[in-house]
Amino acid sequence: MINWKVILNIAKTHLLTKLKSTVTASLGVTFGIGAYITLVSFMTGLNEMLDDLVLNQTPHVHIYNEIEPSKNQPIKLFPEFTNAFNVVHSIKPKRSQKKIHNALPILNYLKKHENVRGAVPQLRAQIFYISGSIELGGNLVGVDIMEEVRLSNIKDNIIEGSPEDLNNNDNGILLGSGLAKKMSLSIVDRVQISTVKGGIFPLKIVGIYQSGIAEIDNIQSFANLKTVQRILGEVQNYITDINVKLYDIEKAVAMAAVLEKQFDVKATDIKEANAQFETGSNIRNLITYAVSITLLIVAGFGIYNILNMLIYEKMKDIAILKATGFSGTDVQLIFMSQAVIIGLVGGFLGLIIGYGLSVLIDNTPFETDALPTITTYPVNYNPLYYLMTRPEIRLHNFKHYV
Prior knowledge:
Elements: H1 4-17, H2 19-55, E1 61-64, H3 103-112, E2 116-131, E3 134-143, H4 145-151, E4 158-161, H5 163-167, E5 172-176, H6 177-182, E6 190-195, E7 200-209, H7 214-217, E8 220-224, H8 225-232, E9 241-246, H9 252-263, E10 266-269, H10 270-273, H11 275-313, H12 315-323, H13 328-362, H14 383-387
Parallel strand pairs: 3-8, 5-7
Antiparallel strand pairs: 1-9, 1-10, 2-3, 2-6, 2-9, 4-7, 6-7
Helix pairs in contact: 1-13, 2-11, 2-13, 11-13
C-alpha cells in the first residue's frame, strides 16, 4: 500500500532543499500560463470586437431583387439552334425593378416564422448630398429605425442624437459622420437631398451616424422608410431590401436557399456575404491558439528540464531510498509529486498574473475616432481559457534509475 504522507513529505523536502531550482521551474510555469491567459484573452477579445463591428451590421439573411441578364436569350426560340454551340455577345440586363415583388407579404411571412427573430424592410436610394456649393454622391437608406435598434447595434453607432429623434421626425436624417465632416454640418443643420431624377428635398439633421468603417460613413445616411419613399415618389410597398435576423445564425444558409426558391428573390446569407472576413478571422484565431499552446508547451518543458537536473542531483538519495525499502514505484511517485506540486503552484500564480494583466489591459484607454463606442482595449474573460491552462508536464522515464 502506498504511503502518500511519506511520499509527499520526501517530495516537499527535495523541493525545499533545492529551492532555487524549484522557484525557477515554478516561475517558468507561472509566466508561461500568465502569458497564455493574457495573450488569448486579448486576442480573442480583439477578434470578437472586429467580428461585432462587421457582423452586427450584416443581416443573417439579406433579401433583394438582383438585376441580371436573362437566362433565356431570343436565340433559344429557334429550334434549328437548339443543338448548336451558341455564342451571344453584348447581353443586356433584363428589364426589372430594384424593388422586391410582394415585399409586404414576404415581410408578414417572415415575422411569423418560428426561426426568425425579426425582419426589417429597407429602401436604398442613390442620391446627392447638397450643402451650399458642395455636392457629394452617396446612399440614403430608408429604415424602420426602432426595429433596427432592436435587431442590430445601430444605436451604439449614433454618436450624436438618438433613434427616437429620427423616429419622431418625418423630415429627419441620420447623417454619416464622414459626410457631416466634409460638409461642415452638425445636428439641427439642414442638408438638401437630390435624387437622380433631379428632385431636391431639404432634410433636418437629427443625428450623426458613425459605423467605424470610413467607406460607409462617407456615403451613407439613414431616414425613415416613409420619408425615402416620399422622396422617390414611390408607394408604401416599394421596398428594395429585407434584412432578416434569426434566432440561430447557423440556420442562415438553409434559410436563404429556401427563401430564394419560395419567393423568387436573391437571398444572401451572412456566411456568403462575409466569406473573406470570416477567413481572416479564422486565421487570426489559429495564430492566437498556436502561439498560446506553444507557451504552455514551453512551460511544460521547463518542469521537465528542472526535474531532469533534480534526478541527476538526487542519484544518491534514490539509492538510499531503494536501500531503505522504497520500491521503484514509490520513487517514481516522489518525483511525479514534485512535478505536480511545481505545476499547481506555478499554474495558480500564473492564473493570478494572467487575470491581473487582462484587467490592466481592459482598463487601458483606447480612443479612436473610427470606433467611438470603444473606450478601452477589448478583453475576453472566458472561464474556459483558465480551465485550459493546465501545464503540460513531461515526466522522465525513471525506470533507468530506479
